[in-house]
Amino acid sequence: QNDALFPGYSLRPVLAWVRATVWRFFGSPASSRSCIVAYGRQSETSSKPRTWENVLDAVRLTGAELIDFRNMYSLDQEVHAMMSAGLVLTVVGAHLANSLFMKPGSVWLEVSCVDLVAIQWGKAWYFLLEALEVHYIQETGKNCP
Fold first, then answer.
1. pTM (predicted TM-score)
2. CB neighbours of 31 closer than 8 A, spacing ≥ 6?
C-alpha cells in the first residue's frame, strides 16, 4: 500500500486511532490560533545548521503565527497548536512528529537541503505523513550543497 513501511501493513488506521485518542483527551483549543504557523528554530544555539534565517520575513508575508516548540511547556500546547494549523512552514527536524496532531488535508511545508534530508531520513517521514493525510512538501533552501 502507498502508506505502508512494510508490504501488507497500513499505518493509516493506527495513526488515525492515535490522533483521535489524543484529540479526545485534550479537547478543542481554548483560543483560536492562526491557521498558518511557522517554526524556524529561531533561537537555536546548537551546532545544528537548521535555522531558518529569514523566518520573520515568511511570517510577515504569509500572516503566519511564529511558534517555538521549545517554549511550549506541555503536550496540550503542542497538540492545540497543531490541531489549529492548516499550514506549517518550517525547517527539517524532529518536531515533524507534531504532524500527528494535524487535521487530515493540512500541509507541512519544510525548507531544507532536500537531497541531504533524503540521505539521512530516507522516506520514513513521507510514509508517515501520507498515512496521516497531511501533505508533505519539501523546498530546497539557499546555500544547500
1. 0.80
2. none
Using the structure block, give the residue that is written with the C-alpha cell 507534531: 98
Q: What is the 3-state secondary structure (H, E, C) of 49-77?
A: CCCCCCHHHHHHHHCCEECCHHHCCCHHH
Alpha-carbon span 60 to 62, nearest angstrom: 6
- Of the candidates 117, 66, 110, the one whose C-alpha atom is nearest the C-alpha of residue 89 is 110
Nearest Cα neighbor of 102 from 73, 56, 134 is: 134
Q: Is-contact 132 104, C-beta < 8 A?
A: yes
Distance of CA 15 to the CA centre of its chain: 15
Residue 135 cell numbers, joined? 501533505
> What pLDDT, in 10s, does the model give residues 84-111?
899 999 888 778 889 999 999 999 998 8
Are the beta carbons of 3 and 104 closer than 8 angstroms? no
User: Which backbone phi and psi does 107 adopt, to 5 degrees?
Assistant: -125, 130
The rounded Cα 101 to chain-centroid distance in angstroms is: 9
| Beta carbons of 65 and 32 less than 8 angstroms apart | no
Q: Is 72 within 8 Å of 46 (Cβ atoms)?
A: no
